[in-house]
Design brief:
The protein is mainly alpha-helical and 509 residues long. Helix content is 83%, strand content 0%. The radius of gyration is 23 Å and the shape is globular.
Length: 509
């Protein structure tokens, strides 16, 4: 394996294992909630969550700027004149971000109640969810702090700390959700209360641990640089969050809140692809791109890693798309089963999230972030038009088609802009990546035609055979070079071989 692949694997597998452990609690919670909450309540919960993502855009832009500046300052340790080790030079960026956070937290606390009233009237047309919205707004104060902490762990390549923090939070939220929703029957309010308590319990002590390393004293110069880089990202992040809100809000108006709940379930299941594989990869990938200088030779080398990743990604996407009926029926009540029809489309659509994250990181790397707002707002305009045209005609399927169309458009536009700013975008391996995606689409269509939506034992086995056949076709296709296939095969053998040998010995014994 090449050096970049080794690094992405060594860090990414830790993030991946952590996300799997982290999401076990969430996945176990989904069937409980979907057999407890109505489709309307689940839809309201999904709308409140995406509204929170919109409100997080301001701090998210500054956190992105913090990560960019951290590497400019230099993560290496510096020493004083006497030779004694002093604070990490990049830590003053984190300390400045913590100081900025205090001001943001005060602002969010003051606006929590009036925002809840306004959002309730605009989105739902009533104040039945006022308490839930208020709890969600207060939770954002601690969510911002938690995201700063996770950014710090990523910058320090402290994958184990990242995993521990997210896992503890997930387990606490799981327990509290059972208590509030199932036992106390608090519905949406209980879900959001569990979220608030879990994130606050973890974020508050962790910030003192980080501040002990970085200090609380920020730098005015660094603060100005944070806003200089971050403010152009604010409209971009706002538009990015609005892309999710627009779809759900228009589905709520043009269809119903129950339709939002079904769409949210399909989207939640498709999102597991990003959380189990895409998220761990991009956590490492984006940091590595920011660390490296833009060099054509290095760009070609590291972009080969993207080909390996897409092959693994599409195996997972194809499996989820083919097994959509089984997954939805296993996890949810009958009222949600129509989500299986749109899950394959949304699963393929989530691949776009990986790509535009890559290209937007390339744009940030060049410190020329002004095109990002225009890029994302154009995408929102395309999304509004697509949802408006397709939802009345095709319902849930129209919402899924519009979502995928908007995300695909954003990939193309961000790639075009990034190509003029970064070698890592300019030398992106479009041909092998597109070939792997197209091949997966063909296998999905074949499965849909041959097996259909019915859940049977024969169909279950045939789907597994299709996934295995796709993996073999991708591995032996021209998208992998001969030496890459050999190294990749050796790497798999080194990790799988001992387990196969152990199983063989036990079978013989």
């Amino acid at each position: 394996m090449t050096s970049p692949l080794q690094r992405v694997w060594s860090q990414g597998r830790v993030y991946g294992l952590g996300n799997i452990l982290n999401r076990v609690a969430g996945l176990l919670l989904i069937p409980i909630l979907l057999h407890t909450l109505s489709t309307e309540a689940w839809g309201a919960y999904a709308l409140i969550l995406v509204i929170g993502q919109v409100l997080l855009t301001v701090p998210a832009a500054l956190i992105d700027a913090m990560m960019r500046l951290y590497f400019d300052e230099g993560p290496q340790e510096s020493t004083s004149a006497g030779g004694a080790e002093t604070a990490n030079r990049g830590d003053k960026v984190v300390a400045t971000m913590l100081a900025v956070y205090l001001a943001i937290a005060v602002l969010f606390a003051v606006l929590a109640y009036p925002l809840a009233v306004v959002i309730g009237g605009l989105i739902f047309g009533h104040q039945d969810y006022l308490n839930a919205l208020l709890i969600a707004n207060v939770a954002l104060i601690f969510e911002i702090l938690f995201e700063i902490e996770l950014g710090y762990f990523r910058m320090r390549m402290a994958a184990n700390l990242y995993i521990a923090a997210t896992l503890v939070r997930s387990l606490v939220q799981f327990a509290l959700s059972i208590l509030f929703v199932v036992v106390l029957q608090m519905a949406v309010t209980g879900l959001l209360l569990g979220h608030l308590i879990s994130v606050a319990l973890l974020a508050v002590p962790v910030v003192f641990w980080i501040a002990k390393r970085t200090g609380w004293r920020g730098s005015g110069e660094v603060g100005r640089e944070l806003f200089r880089i971050g403010l152009p990202l604010l409209p971009a992040n706002l538009a990015k969050a609005l892309l999710d809100l627009v779809g759900r809000a228009m589905l709520n108006v043009l269809a119903s809140t129950s339709a939002v709940g079904i769409f949210a379930l399909a989207s939640k299941l498709a999102e597991q692809i990003h959380l189990l594989l895409g998220g761990p990869f991009t956590n490492v990938w984006s940091v590595q791109l920011l660390e490296l200088s833009s060099q054509p030779e290095r760009a070609r080398e590291i972009n080969r890693v993207m080909v390996y990743f897409v092959l693994l990604l599409m195996i997972l996407v194809l499996a989820l798309a083919l097994y959509a009926p089984e997954v939805v029926m296993l996890l949810s009540a009958r009222d949600y089963w129509s989500a299986a029809a749109i899950l394959p489309l949304l699963a393929f659509g989530y691949v776009a999230r990986i790509f535009y994250t890559h290209f937007e990181t390339c744009i940030i790397q060049g410190k020329r972030t002004l095109p990002l707002p225009l890029l994302n707002w154009i995408t929102v305009g395309v999304a509004v038009a697509a949802f408006y045209l397709l939802i009345p005609r095709f319902g849930l399927l129209g919402a899924a088609l519009a979502d995928v169309a908007a995300r695909s458009f954003r990939v193309v536009l961000s790639a075009w802009i990034a190509a003029s700013r970064s070698d890592y975008a300019r030398y992106f391996p479009w041909v092998p990546v597109s070939s792997l995606i197209a091949l997966a689409v063909v296998f999905q269509w074949a499965g849909a035609l041959l097996i259909g939506p019915e859940v049977t034992v024969i169909g279950f086995l045939l789907k597994g055979m299709l996934v295995a056949l796709y993996a073999l076709c991708g591995f032996f296709s021209p998208v992998l070079k001969g030496d890459e296939r050999r190294h990749f095969g050796q790497w798999i053998g080194q990790r799988v071989g001992p387990w196969v040998a152990l199983a063989s010995r036990r079978l013989r014994g």
